[in-house]
Task: structure prediction
Amino acid sequence: MIAKRPRAKRTKDPDTGAFALGTLRPARVVEPADARELAETLRAASDAGEAVVVYGGGTLQGAANPPSRYDVALSTKRL
Result:
């Protein structure tokens, strides 16, 4: 029997402050574990018309202009 791999970890925690960019906070945070989960996440966000921002180590987050929309924080923590 082949064990199913866990799907991308999704959190709807209202405290998404750790992923804030300026005054913007995402509605949810997604942490895919592999390329398949990453592709599924991006496809679903595109289908829903959501704005996705890639969030790496959390450094230099203020180095650029903030996005106009920020629906999904795509964490690279598990990749």
In short: Confidence is low (pLDDT under 50) at residues 1-6.
